[in-house]
Amino acid sequence: MPKAQETAVYTHGHHESVLRSHTWRTAANSAAYLIGSLKPHMKVLDVGCGPGTITADLAALVPEGHVTGVDHAAGILDRARATAAERGLRNVDFAVADVHALDYPDDTFCVVHAHQVLQHVGDPVQALREMRRVTKPGGFVAVRDSDYAAMTWYPESAGLDGWLDLYRRVARANGGEPDAGRRLKAWALAAGFTDVTATSATWTFSTPDERQWWSGLWADRTVASAYAERATGGGHATPDELAAVAEAWREWGRREDAWFAVLHGEVLCRKDA
Questions:
Q1: 1 in Cβ contact with 110 (< 8 Å)
Q2: N or C: which end of the chain has fewer CB within 10 A?
Q3: Alpha carbons 268 and 262: distance in angstroms, whole number
Q4: Predicted structure pTM score
Q5: Per-residue pLDDT tens over the stretch 254-268
Q6: Which contacts qualify for 83-87: CB closer than 8 Å, 24 or more apart?
Q7: What is the DSSP letter of 194?
Q8: Cα–Cα–Cα angle for 240, 241, 245, nearest 5°?
Q9: Strand 259-270 relative to strand 43-47: parallel, antiparallel, unpaired?
Q10: Of all helices (H) and strands (E), which one includes residue 15?
Q11: How far is CA 79 from CA 43, 56, 183, in A?
């Protein structure tokens, strides 16, 4: 049997076009549903921390506590450490970890958080069981994931329709579930949680700067990132087809009336005391 961390491949990789969006993320725009439950003394685990921008925000919100950011990709952690250092945060550290088998004792953290992680893992229910295991009784597991099938945009674009179909096929071939947002509550219940608050939130891109940024990063990601390599290597698309998708993104971004919304599912799960 393959090891747990080998049952899925991170579709995006860490190309600059990917980090362009990851480093934009903050606690305010990506974890607002959790902020009200944080207390200054809390010990927090941030799973799949990536470049550490949300991690750093969480550390600032628990100044008397501590945050540990973990990621399966060791290389990105240097970027995360630099992010924390630039902000002068001393209550944060980083480590390599596999969410399917966390190397922490039971009942260690007050809060375990994961943003855009479960859509990429091989066994999201097992991941949630592990997150629950290392959470203290009465503490929270907080998870947020986008839902690709629920993303919507204007104006209609056959090129973006093709992008969505292609992305979902590539992600599933890698062992992930791109429509994770709608499944979070079901996964949490299957993992043994009984106190689950399920919510949703969106990112919306419509201003000229937002359109340029969002369309540009997806155009670049489509032709230059690990996702592009997996799309061609897996036989899902040719380089010419990817180039056409990238141009569709840029064409959409040039439209003054363009609008794009990303739906996220969120669950805040309290561990039984």
A1: no
A2: N
A3: 20
A4: 0.93
A5: 999 999 999 999 999
A6: 83/23, 83/51, 83/52, 83/53, 83/55, 83/56, 84/52, 84/55, 84/56, 84/59, 87/56, 87/60
A7: S
A8: 115
A9: unpaired
A10: none
A11: 22, 12, 31
